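lol ok so funny story. i was supposed to be doing the assay writeup but got distracted and ended up predicting the structure for this chain instead. priorities right. anyway since i did it might as well share w the group, maybe its usefull for someone
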Amino acid sequence: MSEEKMSADEIRSAIEQLQLERCNITAQIDSAKRSFSSGGAPADHKWLTAAKRLKGVQIGQLQRQLSEVLKEERAARTRKSASFGQAFMEVAQKMLPQDVYEQIAAEAISKMNSGQS
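and the output, tada:
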């Protein structure tokens, strides 16, 4: 994996690819077991198992990375929403008559305190 930051979709795609590779390794292990039980040559079971384990570790790393990316995206949306709210309040205060602005602000505070959406 490169050091470049991947998007959530790119991470999901990479996870899917690794899961496919891991399934392929599992199929190779199963095929090797069947082949060996019917008199074929033994496969390097340790290597296949290690490769499967490595894919699992890589999947876990990407899942943690995906979680962080999604967390950052949620935080960015929250910041943007808060920024909009602040900008809206400033514009409303400038454009509305003071008594109307104060009435709206009091209603909004009341609504926030009562836990309504």
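The chain has one domain: 8-114. DSSP finds three helices and no strands in the chain.
back to the writeup now i swear
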